[in-house]
Amino acid sequence: MSKARDLANAGTAFTAVSSTELQYVDGVTSAIQSQLDAKEGTLPTQTGNSGKYLTTDGTNKSWGTVSQYALPSQTGNAGEFLTTNGTTESWDVIPAGTTSNAGILQLTNSVSSTSTTTAATPNSVKTAYDSSLLKRQMPFRSTYYYRTPSVGGSGSFTITHQLLYFMPFFVETTTTFDRIGIQSGLSAGTGTVRLGIYNDSGAGVPSTVLLDAGTVSATSPAGTTFTITISQTLNPGFYWLAFCQQGTSPGTPSYTGSSSTNLNLLMPSSTTASDGVVPAAYTNSGITGAFTTATTLSVSTRTPFVYLRAA
Amino acid sequence: MKTITYGIGGYDESKPNNNIVEELDFPDEETE
After folding, report:
1. Chain A interface, mutation test: which of B1, B3, B11, B19, most A Cβ atoms within 10 Å?
2. How many Cβ atoms are within 10 Å of A302's Cβ, its own excluded?
């Protein structure tokens, strides 16, 4: 610093150099040009590396390129998307969908097409629905009772004690039922009657228990209606109403039912084209407690009536 | 005609009135 000040005060030869400029060399301990030349020599050679950028691997400097991010040729690939197989990038298109492969599908409003490579619009679904059987199905009337279907009259039917009667029941539209019940016949029973609903096996016979509603104590005068509160929603399909008198059997356990041998249109008549046996219900014998999956089935030509009320 | 309605689950000795929630008597309908 003192040398710079001496130079600044040396005379007219330094009048063009300010004191501030001379102080820029403060701290210099060797030839400045030599230092600059030495610094440039630490760069990788620039010859042949035009357009590249200076990079480092953490230890050594080098020239790098952006070639690894270059796109594949765009010519002839309009509308395609860029993808990679994990190593190489390329242009690709979304494939057409099929029944075995995901992909793009053409929408259609058709309600008659049998194509397996197009997709229905909500419009075509509505058109099909509006003309389908679903639209023609009769709903259940709220707060009204529906009973075991049968052809023929009703009367007082003496049931068999501990015999579980399955009566087919068809639901066309999804419906919630809030009561299940029976009516005592001419001779008021003293037994306990268990009521419920079974699922169909899918082969036209009762299978698993859908609802065990519990029991009613049929101890009131003849003609009394006994109902149990339920909350059971049934989707369209076949079901089986279940009736079984349990406990101590009365002398004449009678309930409202079919007045005589009757045909139930939902039951098969025979494996031959004859009228030998016309069952109205399937049965399971020896049922003494809670309902369980239906087992070996017999048939009955008469049935007690079970009533369901639509909510 | 008499109507007896049980609550959910049906007859139940552990509940009041054996779980009977409603008991109604209707006069017999007259026919002309």
Report:
1. B11
2. 20
